[in-house]
Structures are given as C-alpha cells and as structure tokens.
Amino acid sequence: MRFGGIAIVLILTQFVAGSVWAGAEEDYQAGLKSHRDGDVVGAMTPLRAAAMENHPKAQALLAEILDRTDFDEDALALYRKSAEQGDPDGMFGLGAMLVSGEGGSKDEPAGRAWILKAAEAGQALAINVVAQAYLKGELGYSEAERATPEALAWIRRAAANAYLPAIDALAAAYASGTGLAVAVDPGLAEEYRAQANKIRKLEPTQGKKKQRRL
C-alpha cells in the first residue's frame, strides 16, 4: 500500500505540473498573439501569468517589452531566467543587456558568451550581432580573430539571414581578396552584390521599430 500511495502521489504531481504548463503555454500564446497584433498592453497580463509559471519564451518576450519601456532591471531578471532555461531569445536578450550595462553592471565577456550561445542555437539577431562584431571589432574581438575562418563562417551565416552588412562585406572581400579570409572570386562577388541590391529594393523606407541596444 505504501508504494501504491507513492505512485498515486507521483501521478497526481505529474498531472498538476502538466496542467500548470498547459495553462502557461495558453497564456503565452494569448500574449504572443496580442503582441503580434500590436496590443502590447493587452499582451502583458497573459505573458506575466506565463512568466510566473517559468515559461521561458513568455519570460523572454515580456522582458523585451519591459526593456523597450526602460524597465531595465525587471527585463534583465526575466531574460536571465529565460536564458538559464536555454531559450535562445532569452540568451540573446541577456547577453545584449550585459554588453550594454542596462539594468545592472556592464559585463562584456559574459554578454558575449550569452550572445554566442544564442547564435549557436540559431537566433537570427544573435547571428547578425556576432557577424557585426567580427566585421567591426566589437565585443572584444581582436584583429587576428576577425581574419579567422570562424569569423568568415559567422559572416556567411548572417548573410544567409539577409543581413546587409555581412553581404556587403562578402561582396567586397570576394572582389578584392582582402578584409576576410577568402580568395578573389568575381562570380561570388557578383552574386553577393546582386543579393544586396535585391534586398535594398525590397526594404521599406519607413522608420523601423527600436532594435535591441548593444
């Protein structure tokens, strides 16, 4: 009977945990929909409910909203909770805030590490930031590191995201053989130039929303 009682308790615990998570996911989806519809205020209540149940994506999205409205300390705490659960958006948000010093002390090495983790997990903005850091010598990258095959790999990944600075850098490098670890290749240079021109024609001229600060 004792072991039977333990089994029942475990089953009930799993059921309750599953129900809580299902509720958190529903709240997150409701908040996400409101956010996508432009109702930021309406998104916050369900996102807070999900974040309190430790839903990592809800924590990351709520943190983004709070960061954009300058509630930096709250945003940093939520990003950290999300990042520690392995959410790529949480990792990128935490890394970016640590690099900039928003919400707490500036810690560029730790911030760079979190941004890299997010990029390795496929977070598009993180990939672009890593590529930009290699291109401009930001995030503590040295001149030697900027000329490595690893730098080239990240810049190519950013170009695959249609990130214009990466595409322009590759076009210039393949045209001249300088700037990146590539040999002259007029064909590839022209491909990247064509890609850049196509993107520029498609880009809206209207003002853009505030981007993550670094």
N-to-C SSE string, H for helix and E for strand: HHHHHHHHHHH
CATH superfamily of the largest domain: Tetratricopeptide repeat domain
- Poorly predicted parts: 9-13
In CATH terms, what is the architecture of the largest domain? Alpha Horseshoe
What do you see in this structure?
With 214 residues, the chain is an all-alpha fold. The chain folds into 2 domains: 1-122, Serine Threonine Protein Phosphatase 5, Tetratricopeptide repeat (Alpha Horseshoe), CATH 1.25.40; 128-203, no CATH class. The chain is 74% helix and 0% strand. It has helices spanning 2-36, 40-52, 56-68, 72-84, 88-100, 108-120, 124-136, 143-146, 149-160, 164-176, 186-202. Helix 2 crosses helix 3, helix 4 packs across helix 5 (88-100) and helix 5 (88-100) packs antiparallel against helix 6 (108-120).
List its traits.
214 residues; mainly alpha; Serine Threonine Protein Phosphatase 5, Tetratricopeptide repeat; 74% helix; 0% strand
How is this fold's topology laid out?
Blueprint (H helix, E strand, L loop, with lengths): L1 H35 L3 H13 L3 H13 L3 H13 L3 H13 L7 H13 L3 H13 L6 H4 L2 H12 L3 H13 L9 H17 L12
Condensed summary:
With 214 residues, this protein is mainly α. The chain folds into 2 domains: 1-122, Serine Threonine Protein Phosphatase 5, Tetratricopeptide repeat (Alpha Horseshoe); 128-203, no CATH class. The protein is 74% helix and 0% strand.
